[in-house]
Design brief:
Pfam families: NAD_binding_9 (PF13454). This is Adenylate cyclase. InterPro entries: FAD/NAD-bd_sf, HpyO/CreE_NAD-binding, L-asp_N-monooxygenase_NS-form. The protein has 643 residues and is an alpha/beta fold. The chain folds into 3 domains: 267 residues, 3-Layer(bba) Sandwich (FAD/NAD(P)-binding domain); 162 residues, no CATH class; 164 residues, no CATH class. The chain is built from 19 helices and 26 strands. The strands form 8 sheets. It has a 5-stranded parallel sheet with strand order 6-3-2-10-26, with helices on one face. β19 and β20 form a beta hairpin. It is globular and about 70 Å long. The two termini are 32 Å apart. The relative contact order is 0.16. It binds flavin-adenine dinucleotide (FAD). The site of flavin-adenine dinucleotide (FAD) has 30 residues, from α1 and α18.
Length: 643
């Protein structure tokens, strides 16, 4: 191991040069003059991928992969709207930068491709580097960090895969969503759970049947790579304006399902017409009062208030922006509606009287589980039902007449913000925090879907027979060549061990024959059909699983006890490992329960929106200032829990 002695000891090593690590770098540069004056300070930025874009936004990936955030909304430049101690450094959004530089078109009117976003991020990095104060030295290492020597000591070093040991008494861990090792059942092909990977998808032969688990954003990425990416083309009919798919003949047959059986709702193509009302029922003060009550239960006490806020926001927008579709004065409606719980019969009666068209009524149950009423349908009826739902959701998300649905998405964000504030302040007990996370998975379903054009493409692929929906509550089993014997396939699949062990014990002809007959089977209890294939595509990001992380540094730090795994109570109240790194005041906690005071965990987050007080920037600013103050001689610093 050769130690790099060319840099001063006052140093920080940022591991991961994606959006998070690059933004922390920007905040260090912005805050350094105030905190360090002209003292020398070294910043090591470590990533095998180019700085700025990192791995997720690398510019060499397919242009078929798009961002799921509107380009005009997101920015890497913290403007004056961010309430942080460091200075504002305003700059363009992705959308403005692409327009002015001509470095990439917007798709579906609003969305940049992922490589185009990567070009913006790399430009951001170059700008930050060009503006570094002269006493700051930046060292970019295109390498993977694999170990930390002398953790916590002044002579702490980060070891890179090439053998270089980088001296840095402080560390920022900004590694993003890391991959997780999964079992590979013998005789079958399993791809994922992981982000869409062109090389991995290349293992799927043309025309092969594939069972797909997951209908979210990773599914959409895979879908495009396996269809347009294999030469198929989408074309809009001049006759009816609908999108059609012309197959190339190389696409596989995808049997796709998920818990709800439908993909998340597409992103709205329009905005609110009227300003949203501030929350009234689910405020931080109301939650604190509930939390003090004996026997507090999140699902019973808080979640109904969240639904109440969604209903209020919906009708507020409907009455304000589309009064011609209502029969009552907005204030009169609101005054009565506030008195009823959202599921109260009197609320339903009031809505029927005030809003004549049932299509305009808001039904949270239907919205969050659109196929709830489905009972043992045939496969063709299911395809029609799902396509009808997709068409309806595209219509509502594209047509400004349905801006009330955008109000629901915004209200979810507001309600999530209230609960996030309590969580970050440590005010939610663990069971309530776990329940809140579970409930708010519905938030992703309602608000974090793909651009609407992606849903139109999915409808076209379904009509062309490339995609077959398998239904709500789809489970996938691996059948190891024994008729009638099926096991659940989970991330830690038992059948995989079983099959591996058997094949390892005796490589008999029978075992080979069993493996040759093995299949994955997708079925839904509410559909009269099941589908088999020898390939399973787990189309989702893996859940965090520190014990199985593929990241060599995290694996090493965990084994050595320098970091540990977080626990949270399960439904029965028993502590369970969550798979995430345990953190206290923004610092990883070691196996003995001590916070690593000079290490900062900066996990992945959505891109910050311009002109908002984005937590992303505030936390990066806090980390940067803590790093600089420590370097200036102030000792380790706390940063907020949300980092
Ligand atoms: C496929 C995908 C699409 C997404 N789309 C959107 C979107 O449209 N809009 C949105 O708001 N959010 C999106 N997100 C959320 C995403 O988390 C953020 O956009 C963002 O990329 C997170 O930034 P990050 O820097 O934390 O992580 P990353 O961008 O993942 O960067 C982490 C970096 O750390 C490096 N690294 C990891 N381990 C090591 C190591 N041991 N040594 C050295 N380097 C290491 C990696 O190579 C990587 O470059 C998406 C996420 C994914 C995975």
């Amino acid at each position: 191991m050769n130690e790099d002695r060319s840099v001063p000891r006052a140093a920080v090593c940022i591991i991961g040069a994606g959006p998070r690590g690059t933004s922390v770098l920007e905040r260090i540069a912005a805050n350094a003059p105030e905190i360090l004056g002209d003292r020398e300070f070294a910043i090591h930025l470590v990533d095998p991928f180019p700085p700025g874009s990192g791995r997720t936004w690398r510019t060499t990936q397919s242009e078929l992969l798009w961002m799921n955030s509107a380009a005009e909304q997101v920015t890497m430049f913290p403007g004056t709207s961010v309430r942080c101690a460091g200075p504002a450094r305003p700059g363009p959004t992705t959308g403005r930068w692409l327009r002015e530089s001509g470095r990439g078109p917007l798709h579906d009117d609003r969305y940049a491709s992922r490589p185009a976003q990567g070009r913006y991020l790399q430009e951001f990095f170059h700008l930050v580097r060009a503006r570094l104060p002269p006493n700051l030295r930046l060292h970019v290492h295109r390498a993977t960090a694999v170990d930390v020597r002398h953790p916590g000591a002044a002579h702490q070093c980060v070891v890179l895969d090439g053998g270089l040991a980088v001296p840095a008494p402080q560390l920022v861990l900004a590694q993003g969503h890391t991959d997780v090792e999964t079992d590979r059942p013998h005789g079958l092909v399993r791809i994922g759970p992981a982000r869409a990977d062109e090389a991995e998808l290349g293992r799927i032969p043309d025309g092969a049947p594939v069972v797909v688990r997951g209908l979210g954003l990773v599914f959409v990425d895979c879908l495009l790579l396996l269809t347009e990416g294999r030469g198929g083309r989408f074309a809009r009919s001049r006759h009816d304006g609908r999108l059609h798919y012309r197959p190339s003949g190389r696409e596989p047959l995808l049997y796709a399902g998920s818990r709800r059986g439908v993909p998340p709702y597409p992103k709205p193509a329009h905005d609110l017409t009227a300003p949203a009302p501030p929350p009234r029922h689910l405020t931080a003060a109301a939650c604190r009062a509930l939390l003090r009550r004996p026997g507090f239960d999140f699902d019973r006490d808080v979640w109904p208030l969240a639904l109440q806020e969604l209903c209020r926001a919906y009708y507020h927008e409907l009455f304000t922006a589309h009064p011609e579709r209502t029969r009552m004065d907005r204030a009169a409606f609101a005054a009565q509606y506030e008195h009823f719980a959202w599921h109260d019969d009197r609320a339903a009666k009031l809505v029927r009287a005030a809003v004549p068209d049932p299509d305009d009524h808001f039904d949270p149950d239907h919205l969050t589980d659109p196929l709830a009423g489905l009972r043992r349908v045939g496969p063709l009826a299911l395809q029609q039902r799902v396509r009808a739902h997709l068409r309806d959701s595209v219509r509502r998300r594209r047509d400004p007449r349905h801006s009330a649905h955008v109000a629901v998405v915004r209200a979810l964000g507001t309600v999530g913000g209230v609960l996030g504030e309590l969580y970050n302040g440590g005010e939610l007990p663990p069971a309530a925090a776990a329940a809140a996370l579970r409930r708010f998975s519905v938030g992703a379903f309602l608000s974090s879907g793909p651009p609407p054009l992606r849903m139109e493409q999915l409808i076209a692929l379904s009509e062309a027979g490339v995609v077959t929906f398998t239904g709500p509550g789809t489970t996938v089993t691996a059948e190891a060549g024994h008729a009638g014997v099926a096991h659940d396939v989970d991330d830690h699949t038992e059948v995989a061990h079983d099959v591996d062990a058997r094949a390892g014990e005796a490589r008999t002809a029978a075992a080979h024959a069993a493996a040759a007959r093995a299949v994955f089977r997708a079925s839904s209890p509410r559909v009269r059909a099941s589908y088999t294939a020898r390939i399973l595509l787990d189309a989702r990001l893996p859940d965090p699983d520190l014990a199985r992380t593929a990241d060599p540094l995290l694996r090493r730090l965990l084994t050595a006890g320098h970091i540990s795994e977080e626990t949270a109570p399960d439904a029965s109240g028993r502590p369970r490992a969550t798979g995430a790194v345990r953190v206290r005041d923004g610092h990883p906690v070691d196996a003995a329960g001590r916070a690593q005071g000079t290490w900062y965990l900066a996990g992945p987050e959505q891109f910050p929106h311009a002109d908002t007080d984005a937590g992303f920037f505030r936390r990066n600013d806090e980390i940067a200032r803590a790093v600089l103050r420590h370097a200036a001689g102030g000792g380790p610093r706390r940063v907020s829990r949300g980092s």
